[in-house]
Structures are given as C-alpha cells and as structure tokens.
Design brief:
Layout lengths: L2 H16 L7 E3 L1 H16 L1 H8 L11 H12 L4 H5 L5 H6 L3 H22 L3 E3 L1
Parallel strand pairs: 1-2
Helix pairs in contact: 1-4, 1-7, 2-3, 2-7, 4-7
Length: about 130
C-alpha cells in the first residue's frame, strides 16, 4: 500500500475532529481553500514561513481558521514522522523549529503527503457557506 493510501483514513478522522462543528458531515468551504493552498505555500515559501502563516491562533475561535487545518495535518503527520510523534509540543511550528535541517526537509515531505490526504478527505464532507 502506498504512503498516501495509508493516510486517507487518518485524514478523514482528523478532518472530522478538527474541521467540523455541529454537523459531522460538513466543513466550512474556507477549509477547502486553505488545504488547496497549503502545498503551494510550502513549496514556494518553505516550511517555517508556511507554518507561521497558518498558525493564526489570535483570530476569532468560532470561525474557520487556518490553524484548524494545521491541527488536522499535525494529527496525520504524527503517524509518519517519528520526531513529530515523540514531541511534546502542542503546535506544529514549535516542533519544526526544534528540528535539524534534514529533519525539517522530511517534515516538509510528510506535510505535503498529509495535505494531499486531507484535501482528498475534504471531498467527502459537504461544504458549508
């Protein structure tokens, strides 16, 4: 089984846990855009700038926020990246800054796979306006 195929089930669970609200079968349509742009941001800006941009913890809690997507990705990446799984940090950016350059590259690859899995998982949820 390919790496991406192994991530689809955990991605579905992560989306349901972190991106749904009252209805467990629907997500805010903003998350589709956040997920679609994550991989491109990672490729063009790099790991740390992308994680910093998506770490919008200061925004209103009841609205769709990029950091909810990061939480879902964090949950999926824990399954493939030992350094992330063993970290006691609560945020992905905190984990990333503690890694060596080669470990950051591995995390970047793992996040790209996780973001693809989450994008595919989002297609199984109804978009909410």
């Amino acid at each position: 089984m390919k790496q991406l195929e192994k991530l689809i089930g955990p991605a579905l669970e992560a989306v349901e846990k972190h991106l749904t609200k009252e209805r467990k079968d629907a997500v805010a349509k903003e998350y589709d855009g956040y997920a679609a742009s994550f991989g491109a941001a990672l490729r063009t800006s790099g790991l740390l700038p992308t994680l910093a941009f998506y770490s919008d913890y200061h925004k209103e809690k009841n609205k769709p926020r990029r950091n909810h997507l990061l939480q879902a990705l964090y949950e999926v990446v824990k399954l493939t990246n030992e350094k992330v799984a063993l970290s006691n940090a609560s945020r992905l950016l905190e984990v990333a800054v503690q890694l060596s350059a080669s470990e950051q590259k591995q995390l970047e690859r793992d996040l790209l796979n996780a973001s693809i899995a989450v994008k595919l998982a989002l297609r199984n949820f109804e978009p909410l306006d």
